[in-house]
Q: What sequence folds into this?
């Protein structure tokens, strides 16, 4: 954690005048980033009450009242807050940086708000990360030009200086620009493994092919490296999805549905509303299994 804060300090320049809300549950790794970025750099930490975090209007009022300067949000949590700010006469003008993390950022959802705020808009930063590599791995400033381009790419930027982030194929060969591969993260932030899960640890924490005895983490996330060095996040290579920052195994939900005696078949997928907010949808075939 100490090396994460040190490696990213150049980008945020936090100090005693900064106010950061702890919006996320302490069970979510982004809360670690919120808490210690305030305390380590001498700023003020505001603990957001449970129900305030779930009421966009109340949270918007808190941001203005407490003069928050750095805000961390999952994209789906920001959408209702953005709508409140669009309609409010008093904008959350003290916020100078908004960091998105926890799930894929759909850039078109930000266009109306960014064009409304124009030069008063805060700096938007997209940071890809995973708990197993200590919260964040990449940094990318999102511009209005990115949002207007609307090419369907969720750009996550470049690796934090003490990490390496590479897309690789199944043979652990680097994916060329324009191709699609699995994101592998190496460097100083890698966890030791999963507690009392040696099999899963061996599967996910693998030797770095550089042959120097280092390790890297297989994220299970797919990405496309671009010619300019940027990385476009695509999604998962398995049935796991992320909604509001929470990892969800769709197979576990399907298995639970199939335990019901009136369900013969089941499938679960993640879908998106027009607003960009994601939700789970389950489809079932009713009836008893054949022969019963």
A:
């Amino acid at each position: 954690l100490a090396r994460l804060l040190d490696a990213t300090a150049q980008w945020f320049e936090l100090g005693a005048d900064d106010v950061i809300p702890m919006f996320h549950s302490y069970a979510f790794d982004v809360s670690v980033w919120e808490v210690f970025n305030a305390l380590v750099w001498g700023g003020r930490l505001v603990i957001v009450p449970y129900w305030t975090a779930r009421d966009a209007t109340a949270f918007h009022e808190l941001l203005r009242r407490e003069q928050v300067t750095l805000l961390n949000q999952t994209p789906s949590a920001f959408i209702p807050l953005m709508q409140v700010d669009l309609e409010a006469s008093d904008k959350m003008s003290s916020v100078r940086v908004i960091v998105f993390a926890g799930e894929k950022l759909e850039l078109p959802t930000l266009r109306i708000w960014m064009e409304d705020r124009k030069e008063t808009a805060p700096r938007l930063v997209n940071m890809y990360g995973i708990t197993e590599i200590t919260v964040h791995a990449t940094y990318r400033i999102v511009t209005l030009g990115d949002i207007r381009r609307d090419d369907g790419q969720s750009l996550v930027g470049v690796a934090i200086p003490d990490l390496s982030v590479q897309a690789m194929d199944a043979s652990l060969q680097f994916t060329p620009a324009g191709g699609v591969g699995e994101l592998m993260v190496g460097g100083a932030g890698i966890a030791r493994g999963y507690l009392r899960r040696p099999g899963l640890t061996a599967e996910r924490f693998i030797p770095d092919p550089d042959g120097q005895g280092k390790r890297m983490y297989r994220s299970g996330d797919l990405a496309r490296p671009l010619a300019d060095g940027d990385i476009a996040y695509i999604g998962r290579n398995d049935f796991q999805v992320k909604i509001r920052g929470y990892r969800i195994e769709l197979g576990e939900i399907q298995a639970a549905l199939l335990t019901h005696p009136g369900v013969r078949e089941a499938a679960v997928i993640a879908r998106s509303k027009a607003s960009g907010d994601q939700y789970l949808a389950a489809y079932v075939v009713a009836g008893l299994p054949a022969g019963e």
The chain has nine helices and 17 strands. Residues 75-87 form the longest helix (13 residues). The first strand starts at residue 19 and ends at 22. The mean pLDDT is 90.
